[in-house]
């Protein structure tokens, strides 16, 4: 499949440049997606952040060279992108459990991480609930922060942002500013939700906004306001869950979208904003809708 071929092509580029500089934009370009989407897909498909994969592969190759040649530690450190022998030694110790100089000793235990390749895995025990939606342009407003996918920082930082803004009353104030006549526990989508990737912040970073939808009744003063263009959306819905399960359920849905739905769907992500809409079911439990802009795959 073209999608798998592109991902494997990106891995080939990374592997060919482990001894030099790896340009994330080049790798993402080979995969035909943005840097953000490439890192996100990589992390969801492998359960390892891209930066961690690169670090493991470089230190694997460094250990082989130290064992099999008389290369100096400083030379192997520079070869694999470390600015000093000290920084290399710390990273090597953390991964392998021994100092670089000891890796040459017989009987020393070291770790080896092989090159990745992507293949189709047959799944399907659990269904995925989705629908396709064409929506005209609209606007949202809210509170913005910038996150990065490096080392999975976004997976920790975003839940912390929600917790902080809920505790200080920001989420409640944003809900009132939306102008929606809504009370907690009312079935349906809540007035305060989340949008991300609505503008390019460069490299591995992306903007994330806890937001409300703009309308004639909304009061947007003091908030960041973003125009959302007309797009075609793939909309996915979680199973119902308790409040304590929110983070796990939403992150699990994102992973399934990238590892199960996109490879087989005939669609690929369109560069643009992505939404998480949070709702209350008739049962009183919670659910989440993930909205991703998509386009049909070429060829």
Structure, described:
- Strand 4 (193-196) and strand 5 (205-213) form a beta hairpin.
- The mean pLDDT is 89.
- This protein has two domains: 2-104, Arc Repressor Mutant, subunit A; 129-296, Multidrug-efflux Transporter 1 Regulator Bmrr, Chain A.
- The longest helix has 20 residues, at 246-265.
- Strands 1, 2, 3, 4, 5, 6, 7, 8, 9 and 10 form a ten-stranded antiparallel β-sheet that branches.
- Helix content is 38%, strand content 22%.
- It has helices at 2-16, 24-30, 35-46, 50-68, 73-79, 85-96, 153-167, 170-177, 246-265; strands at residues 129-135, 138-148, 188-189, 193-196, 205-213, 224-228, 231-237, 267-269, 274-280, 286-296.
- It is α+β, with helices and mostly antiparallel strands and 299 residues long.
Write the SSE topology.
Blueprint: H1 2-16, H2 24-30, H3 35-46, H4 50-68, H5 73-79, H6 85-96, E1 129-135, E2 138-148, H7 153-167, H8 170-177, E3 188-189, E4 193-196, E5 205-213, E6 224-228, E7 231-237, H9 246-265, E8 267-269, E9 274-280, E10 286-296
Antiparallel strand pairs: 1-7, 2-5, 2-6, 3-9, 4-5, 4-9, 7-10, 8-10, 9-10
Helix pairs in contact: 1-2, 2-3, 5-6
Helix content: 25-40%
CATH class of the largest domain: Alpha Beta
The tally of beta strands, per DSSP, is 10
Named CATH architecture of the largest domain: Alpha-Beta Barrel
Element-by-element helix/strand order: HHHHHHEEHHEEEEEHEEE
Largest sheet: 10 strands, antiparallel
When the domains are counted, the total is: 2
Distance between the termini: 11 Å
Task: Provide the low-confidence segments as ranges.
Answer: none
| Radius of gyration, CA atoms, in whole angstroms | 22 Å
Q: Which class of secondary structure composition applies to the elements?
A: alpha+beta
Q: Any idea what the CATH superfamily of the largest domain is called?
A: Regulatory factor, effector binding domain
* Basic shape: elongated
Q: Average pLDDT across residues?
A: 89
């Amino acid at each position: 499949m073209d999608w798998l071929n592109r991902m494997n092509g990106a891995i080939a580029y990374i592997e060919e440049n482990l001894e030099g500089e790896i340009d994330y934009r080049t790798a993402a370009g080979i995969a035909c997606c943005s840097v953000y989407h490439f890192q996100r897909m990589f992390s969801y498909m492998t359960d390892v952040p891209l930066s961690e994969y690169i670090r493991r592969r470089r230190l694997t190759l460094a250990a082989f060279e130290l064992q099999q040649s008389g290369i100096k530690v400083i030379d192997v450190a520079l070869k694999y992108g470390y600015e000093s022998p000290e920084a290399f030694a710390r990273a090597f110790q953390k991964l392998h459990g021994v100092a670089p100089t000891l890796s040459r000793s017989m009987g020393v235990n070291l770790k080896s991480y092989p090159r990745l390749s992507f293949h189709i895995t047959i799944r399907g025990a659990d269904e995925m609930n989705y629908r396709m939606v064409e929506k005209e342009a609209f606007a949202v407003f809210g509170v913005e922060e910038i996150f990065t996918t490096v080392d999975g920082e976004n997976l920790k930082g975003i839940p912390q942002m929600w917790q902080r803004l809920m505790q200080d009353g920001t989420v409640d104030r944003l809900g009132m500013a939306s102008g929606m006549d809504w009370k907690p526990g009312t079935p349906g989508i809540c007035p305060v939700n989340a949008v991300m990737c609505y503008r390019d912040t460069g490299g591995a970073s992306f903007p994330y906004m806890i937001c409300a939808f703009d309308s004639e009744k909304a009061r947007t003063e003091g908030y960041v306001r973003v125009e959302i263009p007309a797009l075609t959306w793939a909309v996915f819905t979680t199973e119902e869950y308790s409040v304590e399960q929110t983070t796990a359920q939403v992150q699990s849905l994102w992973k399934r979208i990238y590892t199960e739905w996109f490879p087989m769907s005939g669609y690929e992500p369109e560069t643009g904003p992505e939404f998480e809409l949070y709702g209350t079911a008739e049962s009183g439990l919670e659910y989440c809708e993930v909205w991703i802009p998509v386009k049909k795959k070429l060829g």
